[in-house]
């Protein structure tokens, strides 16, 4: 078996027909966009027709354009910080589209494309990074939790939520509209945090309906994957008894398929799964980072040739499912999103300090209302003194 030496000498080249073991990448589209057969995962994408495939392409293009605009806005001083997701669109769109409406996603802070697949207006993400709100959206509206900036901590939150769904009787009923599961996203760097290991232990012993999606983008800021592990990260699951799979994270079809299977298993009561989506962060860790300090242009060129959007576009074009009219229409939609993103961002203004009391509890709370009234009087006292 050939080995990829450009990035990680532990990583074998994908084999489409090999079993879904933690050491082999599952792949349904090769880098040139050719469809590959896979005895285990073909059935999970069998219902994705031309319309659905074009939808996945549109999702990735829009997510990339939004991300590019947000990066530019930060460079122009309109955002305090931004974590680019360039290159990771397939892992996010594929897994996100595999979820049902009742499933719940727990993102870290780079899952912009997942937010889009959950029906969110991606522009709402900017509220956090512009500093006008601590959250910016209602997690219950789209079953998409607020971004988590404490590395790895949200894996415990996700596992706890999944255990709650299990105890509410919403797992293993056989009712497709009731059974639900949780997907939690984190990076390779987070696997070095104890919280992630603890979450997987809890999930394993309780058979919680949670899918752990590790987007291995090769770099934990400036620390390479080889500085964090001597074996593929997917093997972490075996240590606690969680089935694991390693997928080509630049292949949107494979990302969809492995997540769909894991979610079906979780919803039916089969317990958790660990997915390692092997991908690459083409941009900086955040806009405060300079990746030229720790990686080479040759490495970036290697992964640029494996671009997830170009891969699906090549497949659609070869199948006669993406003519010039379609590609032009998607490009126009991306341009429109870019323009509206700029307008939306620049119109954001901070809310008043009294809003700190609005979401302390889900229902009215006497102590909070007392403190709100005191703060209002305190604020008013300054206006009276000014007069």
What does this structure look like?
This protein is an alpha/beta fold and 387 residues long. The protein folds into two domains: 25-347, Thiamin diphosphate (ThDP)-binding fold, Pyr/PP domains (Rossmann fold); 356-386. Helices cover 41% and strands 9% of the residues. It is built from twelve helices and eight strands. Strands 1-7-8-4-3-2 form a six-stranded parallel β-sheet, sandwiched between helices. The protein has a two-stranded antiparallel sheet with strand order 5-6. Helix 8 (252-267) links the parallel strand 7 and strand 8. Helix 2 (89-97) packs parallel to helix 8 and helix 6 (153-167) packs parallel to helix 7. It is globular. The N and C termini lie far apart (81 Å).
CATH architecture of the largest domain: 3-Layer(aba) Sandwich
Q: CATH superfamily membership of the largest domain, which one?
A: Thiamin diphosphate (ThDP)-binding fold, Pyr/PP domains
Widest sheet, order of strands:
1-7-8-4-3-2
Number of H- or I-type helical stretches: 12
Contiguous uncertain segments of 5+ residues = 1-20
Structural class: alpha/beta
- State mean pLDDT (0 to 100 scale): 93
Q: Secondary-structure element order, as H and E?
A: EHHEHHHHEHEEEEHEHHHH
Shape: globular
How many angstroms does the end-to-end distance come to?
Answer: 81 Å
- Tell me the radius of gyration: 22 Å
Q: Helix content range of the residues, please? A: 40-55%
Portion in beta strands: 5-15%
- Any idea how many domains? 2
Q: Could you give the count of β-strands?
A: 8
The CATH class assignment of the largest domain is: Alpha Beta
- What oligomeric state best describes the polypeptide chains here? single chain
CATH topology of the largest domain: Rossmann fold
Largest sheet: 6 strands, parallel
């Amino acid at each position: 078996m050939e080995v990829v030496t450009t990035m990680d000498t532990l990583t074998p080249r994908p084999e489409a027909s090999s079993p879904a073991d933690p050491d082999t990448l599952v792949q349904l589209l090769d880098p040139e966009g050719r469809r590959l057969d896979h005895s285990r995962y073909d059935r999970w994408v069998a219902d994705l027709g031309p319309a659905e495939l074009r939808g996945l392409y549109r999702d990735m293009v829009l997510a990339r354009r939004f991300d590019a605009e947000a990066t530019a806005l930060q460079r122009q001083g309109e955002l305090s910080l931004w974590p680019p997701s360039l290159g990771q669109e397939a892992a996010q769109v594929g897994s996100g589209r595999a979820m049902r409406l009742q499933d719940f996603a727990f993102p870290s802070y780079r899952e912009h494309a997942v937010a889009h697949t959950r029906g969110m207006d991606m522009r709402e993400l900017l509220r956090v990074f512009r500093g006008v709100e601590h959250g910016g959206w209602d997690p219950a509206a789209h079953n998409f939790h607020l971004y988590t900036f404490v590395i790895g901590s949200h894996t415990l939150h996700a596992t706890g939520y999944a255990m709650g769904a299990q105890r509410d009787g919403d797992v293993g009923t056989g009712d497709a509209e009731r059974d639900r599961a949780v997907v939690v996203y984190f990076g390779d760097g987070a696997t070095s945090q104890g919280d992630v290991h603890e979450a997987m232990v809890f999930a394993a012993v309780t058979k919680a309906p949670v899918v752990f999606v590790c987007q291995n983008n090769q770099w934990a800021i400036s620390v390479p994957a080889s500085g964090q592990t001597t074996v593929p990260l997917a093997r972490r699951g075996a240590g606690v008894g969680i089935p694991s799979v390693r997928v080509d994270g630049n292949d949107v079809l494979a990302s969809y398929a492995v997540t769909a299977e894991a979610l079906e298993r979780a919803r039916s009561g089969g317990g958790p799964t660990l997915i390692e989506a092997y991908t690459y962060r083409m941009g900086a860790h955040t806009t405060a980072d300079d990746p030229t300090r720790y990686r080479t242009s040759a490495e970036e060129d290697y992964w640029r040739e494996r671009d997830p959007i170009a891969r699906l576009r090549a497949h659609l074009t070869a199948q006669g499912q993406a003519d010039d009219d379609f590609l032009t229409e998607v490009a126009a939609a991306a341009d429109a999103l870019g323009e509206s993103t700029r307008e939306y961002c620049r119109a954001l203004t901070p809310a008043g300090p009294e809003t700190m009391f609005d979401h302390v509890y889900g229902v009215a709370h006497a102590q909070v209302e007392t403190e709100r009234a005191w703060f209002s009087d305190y604020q008013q006292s300054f206006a009276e003194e000014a007069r």
